Amino acid sequence: MFKTNTTNPVPVNPGENWTDTETNAPAEKRKASSITTETESFLKNLPDVVCLSHLRWDFVYQRPQHLLSRFAKYGRVYFVEEPIFDDSHASRLNVSAREENLYVVVPNLPHRLTAEQIEEEQRTLLNSLLKEQLLERFILWYYTPMALGFSSHLSPALTIYDCMDELSAFKFSPPLLKELEQELFKRADLVFTGGQSLYDSKKKQHMQTHLFPSSIDKAHFAKAKEQLEQPADQAAIPAPRIGFFGVIDERMDLQLIAAVADKRPDWQIVMLGPVVKIDPADLPKRENIQYLGGKSYQELPAYIRGWEVALMPFALNESTEFISPTKTPEYLAAGKPVVSTPVRDVVKPYGEAKLVHIACTPEEFVSGVEAAMAQASDPAWHCDVNAFLAGRSWDNTWRGMVQLMSQALQHQTA
After folding, report:
1. Where is this region: Disordered (predicted)?
2. For the segment 320-362, what is each residue's pLDDT rounded down to a tens digit?
3. Which of 136, 142, 154, 217 would you call most buried, defined as having the most Cβ atoms within 10 angstroms of its Cβ?
4. Rounded to 5 degrees, what angle do the CA atoms 55, 61, 64 make?
């Protein structure tokens, strides 16, 4: 039933400890020490982690990869993706290693199954995975409520819902998603949210909702400040370059991108990332707009280094109402000034702190880019950015989650 492959692991750079706050109060120190001891005990006896995700591990390296790769340092992690359909006559699982203790699990299902059959096949394959891998004590980590349809019969040690997007607002979202999310709230021990807007929405629906904004691998993106060789497909593009990396989908304001290109034909707009859920034919075509396709996480600093300004040209629509773009601190850690449309979780805190230029119309966006180009040489801005990012790291975010998980498990067994 299982096909196992091995691919090269994704390196993860270590960051800071979860808490860097000092206190002179002995009681507070004893409390902090107790929490640390409990957390380390939890990690030494970490249950296996079974993650049920709507995202592909190898698609874009982002929040799930940063968090789950850290769990894999202490125990086994199984990242279960959505099914792939083919012409085979029998369902099967493809299990492949990405790094030590971390396995990507892909259900392969035959074409022409009904929705009910698809769910039943996924349930059967998941049961087989648990049995054959001896997964008896495990944590269920959900990224999509839709997975509840084939996993609701399980009895995990903990149930975690890491809500990184308002999936119901996305294009082609399943009608059942909202209903299943309500069921997941009833089952979840903890709910984590990837941004302030999501937190404000979800905290009304679950008492144990906690805000963990997507963090940053500062050391990785700071490589963009070094003397890196320009990638061949970007080196031929004349300067000045302003760029974007990420998924190019219904969240992009394509008309804004076209208008900026028209107003400043001397600027080259570099777009990195896969095109999904929209027709590539609808992308604006201009001599000064360059679509270079998807790039690996490791390649990003070299591309960013060649930009004068980084862009976040998000449309203001239902699908972006609750987004909290991870690329905001990543751009800043790379030393690049940023211009963004007024996405709520970008305006606060980045816009209010004068770290990111906020612009709505094409004229404002052009003015914002011009101001950002001048800002690149401003030592005061760089100092403010460094101070803002100083306490942020994926290690800190992960450690905070682990602490809450340890407490939740202790509460269950008390």
Report:
1. 1-34
2. 999 999 999 999 999 999 999 999 999 999 999 999 999 999 9
3. 142
4. 55
